[in-house]
Amino acid sequence: MELRIRNLSKTYANGVVALDNITLMIPAGMFGLLGPNGAGKSTLMRILATLQECDTGSVFLGDLDVLDEKDAVRRLLGYLPQDFGLYPKVTAYELLDHFAVLKGLSHRTRRREVVDGLLQQTNLFDVRNQKLGTFSGGMRQRFGIAQALLGDPKLIIVDEPTAGLDPQERVRFHNLLSDIGDDRTVILSTHIVSDVADLCSNMAIINKGQLLVTGATQELIDDI
Ligand code: ADP
Ligand code: ADP
To answer: Record's family (predicted)?
Structure first.
């Protein structure tokens, strides 16, 4: 499903213009939102994820008015925020199972299939009974993706997921993301050019709340 953002603006109470009249079309597939720290990426991601209000503008996911029909959007959405909390004392299996219940997967056998499947997909099945507090940064991010994939969302938003990962973890994480991006819309925000170059067929660059350029990654990446 394509996402159409029109004239989106957001100014914080302290006067910082985080988003300055952004108009952007995000097609299905993997989309990279590239920009330095402070560019407005997290603000945009939170608005798209229905967790924050904008001042003006519109956002449509297919025919769905994202700013107006928040419940419907949330049912279609998987969101991995930049700094998501994990409960250190519970195991990966327990927490994912718990989120699956919250997502409405009430049937035990079916839930087990889904949770096991996601743990396998994110390469965490072997460590499913370890407490989350023992996880490395890469394992945490992969767990976050498993969580975001619950309910088979059509739109996935991941905010700066590779910040702080070492090169080996980054490669693993790239492989995981490229597997999930096939039949969905996945928006990846990052300040790392290679995240976008390796993974995203389309991209945009924002800085100081403004859209600088958008288009096919292949055509833009040589200029960066
Ligand atoms: P990022 O790493 O994406 O730049 P920030 O460090 O800007 O994130 O923001 C981290 C958190 O602090 C966010 O929840 C953001 O809303 C909040 N925040 C950032 N800047 C300010 C600010 N100037 N005043 C109040 N809250 C802020
Ligand atoms: P990015 O994710 O690209 O780092 P953010 O969306 O976090 O950018 O921040 C954009 C700008 O808005 C930054 O200057 C940041 O300090 C500011 N900002 C973010 N959250 C808040 C907030 N809650 N209150 C005030 N300023 C904020």
So the answer is: Belongs to the ABC transporter superfamily.
